[in-house]
Amino acid sequence: MERLDRITVNPSVCLGQPTIRGMRITVSAILKMLASGSSVQHVLDAYPELEVQDVQQAIKYAAWIVSDQIHMVNA
User: Which domains does the chain possess?
Assistant: First the structure.
């Protein structure tokens, strides 16, 4: 797996939620914007401190997190 060096977790920043490069911009905030239909450019416009690679790593981080989730489904 690619190293996610732009994702940081610090208990003193945003209550320990994953953030981008230690800033107070959470991965979840980026993902929620994208999920609601915002474009990557809109996210970058909303958060000028971000770079395209930050948004890409937020998506990769989310994919990595959910890949470890197993849910039993009754058929």
Answer: 7-65 (1.10.10.10)
Per-residue pLDDT of 18-42, as tens digits, reads 999 999 999 999 999 999 999 999 9
Count of beta carbons in the 10 Å neighbourhood of residue 50: 20
Q: What span, in angstroms and rounded, lies between the C-alpha atoms of 39 and 31?
A: 11
pTM summary value: 0.84
Pair 18, 26: CB distance under 8 Å: yes
The predicted pLDDT at position 1 comes to 54
**In this structure, are strands 19-20 and 7-8 parallel, antiparallel, or unpaired?**
antiparallel
Annotate the chain with three-state secondary structure. CCCCCCEECCCCCHHHCCEECCCCCEHHHHHHHHHCCCCHHHHHHHCCCCCHHHHHHHHHHHHHHHHCCCCCCCC
